[in-house]
Specification:
2 domains; Helix Hairpins; 49% helix; 6 strands; two-stranded antiparallel ribbon; 187 residues
């Protein structure tokens, strides 16, 4: 989302850890989520090169937009100039893939490989993860870079299916990784 933040909004954001903004139309300070409950916990505040624009890196609770969309940028300008509602999947490809796997688990489309894996249960999915991990090792030691990339993609997909099958949110993995950020590299 894009919003205006004045000095007081920045001060309150830093003090509370929750995103605050200033509404120029209402001429009032507001905290994101004060009416919706969809707060933004600020992990980092960044400045642009000129120091006149700030970026809040946040953990978003619920949708960011008052319309219920994940982002305020849920409309795409078409070739005819019209605006079409097209929710932005946002995020990294792994997050988008995890979301697609969640959707497959919920909608259970016929012929879906993901659904077939989920129906087989965690032990069968874990076995598939083991097979894919072995294929990554073989590719790393004896095949070209393209094959290693392809096998790694297979492994990551199957790990995401395993997480879904066990009921572990991929966001929990991201949080764990963030808690370790820099830890391994500094040792």
């Amino acid at each position: 989302m894009v919003a205006y933040a004045d000095q007081e909004a920045l001060k309150r954001t830093r003090a509370s850890g929750l995103a605050h903004y200033f509404s120029r139309s209402r001429k009032a300070l507001w905290r994101k989520g004060e009416t919706s409950g969809h707060v933004q916990r600020v992990r980092q505040i960044r400045l642009d090169c000129d120091g006149d624009t700030v970026l809040y890196r946040v953990d978003q609770s619920g949708p960011a937009c008052h319309t219920g969309d994940r982002t305020c940028f849920a409309r795409v300008v078409t070739t005819t100039g019209d605006a079409a509602h097209t929710p932005d999947p946002g995020g990294h490809i792994l997050g988008r893939l995890a979301e697609r796997i969640r959707a497959r688990a919920a909608t259970r489309p016929d012929g879906s490989y993901t659904v077939r894996l989920l129906d087989a249960g965690p032990p069968a999915i874990a076995q598939k993860v083991g097979e894919e991990a072995a294929e990554v090792v073989v590719a790393a030691l004896a095949e070209d870079e393209a094959r290693l990339a392809a096998e790694t993609a297979d492994l990551l997909y199957h790990v995401l299916v395993l997480l879904q099958g066990r009921g572990v949110a991929v966001e929990d993995v991201w949080k764990e990784l963030e808690s370790r950020e820099g830890e391994k590299c500094e040792k």
